[in-house]
Amino acid sequence: MLAVSLAATSCHDSDSTDEPDPPVPTRPSDSVHRTVLVYMLADNSLGTWSNDLSDLNEMLSAAATGALNGGRLIVYHSRPGTDSGKAPQLLEVTADGIETIKTYPDDPSIYSVDADRMSQVIDEVKALAPADDYGLVLWSHANGWMETSMSRSFGDDRRYTMKISSLAKALDGKDFSFIYFDCCSMASVEVMWELRHAAPVIVASGIELPADGMPYDLTLPYLFASGDPDVVGAASTTFDHYDSMIGSARTCAMTAVNTSAMQALADASGDIFAGVTEFDPSLSSVQPYFRSAVRTYMYDFEDYIERLNPTPAQIRAWRDALADAVVYKANTPSLFNLVDIDRYCGLGSYVILDSREISAFNYNEREWYRDVVSRSPLLATDNP
Predict the structure, then answer these.
(1) pLDDT tens across 109-135, in order?
(2) pLDDT at 190 (0 to 100)
(3) Three-state SS string across the chain, please?
(4) Whether pTM exceeds 0.70
């Protein structure tokens, strides 16, 4: 269905010499109202299952019906088979087809989860497709805030992954009007705090999503809307798409966060954590956002906060802050018919049941831990 071939055109390995990367072709073009970059990391099981090609076809279908509204849709496509010569490509999706703008150096030692590569691609896209406004879709596997050698935060490129701190570095100063995570488990308070300066609105899911991900043929009209992008419309359309299904296919949870309100939420949360001097036994039953086979250790943030025994004034202030931060949330009744989702406040959180768990998955390296959770004398790192 693709209008042009997505097969690799081999480039010389300029990264192994003193030669620079091949330049990105430029063309005379006036600035458009919006350019959206889809950073698609598919050299993993999603690419093996051809989810990348399915989504490119959805984008092509949307563009053919005028969904881009005069804007430009650019895809950085890290394809399956990087190690066998299929180097990443920069594509443009148009109403007339898909054009290969650039094939990156054929060097499999360069990973698309590297912050420098992501930053390079973003800068190239802005030079290639100047616009009044830029949006970013991050497409791959993901695992929220967790950072270990065996657990990804965002992205999977031949089993190499990207720390949330590295993602924040790559996005620093890039001035996106929105970020949409087309991947699992990124709607956690830890992720949103770390990325609070990356974009004014971030859309993500608190749970594991179906591999098909966002239905681009339905959502792109919202992302390319005139005026401000309607990211809540895109999020709710994705949710409605899966909520209309039956059986285990009816699984989805979506969240849109106003990042300018995260500071107030951090302040209100910190006030509550400052009073935590013992572990409530009920913490072990906080609403989970994951199934046993795929442990993201994310739990409902509101359920967690309530069990920390805040005062009535503290919980009122906290709920007001949460309402300002989470501008949209929705969830199906269960996760793949395996986990009931009775509570979904829109943000997940790690739950610490014992002070020894502070360093699990490098949690003590998260900014949310440093700035908020560690205010508890029970949860500070200098406790035994």
Answers:
(1) 999 999 999 999 999 999 999 999 999
(2) 98
(3) CCCCCCCCCCCCCHHHCCCCCCCCCCCCCCCECCEEEEEEECCCHHHHCCHHHHHHHHHHHHHHCCCCCCCEEEEEEECCCHHHCCCCEEEEEECCEEEEEEECCCCCCCCCCCHHHHHHHHHHHHHHCCECCEEEEEECCECCCCCECCECCEEEECCEEECHHHHHHHHCCCCCCEEEEECCCCCEHHHHHHCCCCCCEEEECCCCCCCCCCCHHHHHHHHCCCCCCCHHHHHHHHHHHHHCCCHHHCCCEEEEEEHHHHHHHHHHHHHHHCCCCCCCHHHHHCCECCECCECCCCEEHHHHHHCCCCCHHHHHHHHHHHHHHEEEEEECCEECCCEECCCCCCCEECCCCCHHHHHHHHHHHCHHHHHCHHHCCCCCCCCC
(4) yes
